[in-house]
Design brief:
Elements: E1 23-28, H1 40-46, E2 52-56, H2 66-73, E3 77-80, E4 87-88, H3 89-95, E5 101-106, H4 109-118, E6 126-129, H5 151-163, H6 167-170
Parallel strand pairs: 1-2, 1-5, 3-5, 3-6, 4-6
């Protein structure tokens, strides 16, 4: 978990990585890398390395990130970002049976908004959102409102839905 021994969370992580078919691309704002209470390292520790790819930056051009560009053009790729254009993830998951890729932006709301709107690649995948009635249980770092979730919680809920496996969220 990369935390000091006194506050180590490793005993709470799964012994073996979770078996999932969905691949997550975490687009992390550079400011998140230095936060002590960030959740992406915990997420990465729970998943196989080939199912959790972390890209750090603010700008993601097709030239510098050809793999990401290919992923964004794939019809099975989803981007988890709420808004008027977003479909409910549960409805999309019911219609999909093939393994997919999900992009999640990691940062504060203003950082995520900046990344989403300044990178045209992120408007290529189908935009999805979680139901607004989920409340955060991540008590280590305070969320702006009760319905804001940490990146770890978003990924856990999304994987639970995509994998049709309720135990993922609890683990």
């Amino acid at each position: 978990c990369s935390r000091p021994q006194k506050v180590c969370l490793c005993p709470f992580l799964p012994i073996h990585p979770l078996k999932v078919s969905t691949c997550l691309y975490i687009i992390q704002h550079p400011a998140e890398e230095s936060r002590v209470l960030r959740t992406v390292p915990l997420l990465a520790a729970c998943l196989p390395p080939d199912k959790c790819k972390i890209l750090v930056g603010r700008r993601f051009s097709e030239d510098r990130y050809p793999e990401l560009a290919t992923v964004c053009r794939n019809p099975n790729t989803l981007i988890l970002y709420p808004g008027a254009e977003a479909s409910n993830l549960e409805e999309v998951a019911v219609m999909s049976s093939s393994p997919s890729v999900m992009i999640i932006i990691d940062g504060t709301w203003s950082q995520a908004k900046d990344i989403f709107y300044k990178n045209s690649l992120f408007r290529l995948p189908r935009q999805v959102q979680l139901k607004p009635n989920i409340s955060s249980q991540y008590v280590i770092r305070t969320q702006p409102t009760n319905t804001c979730l940490s990146t770890l919680e978003c990924a856990a809920v999304a994987l639970t839905i995509m994998e049709k496996n309720k135990s993922i969220q609890e683990v």
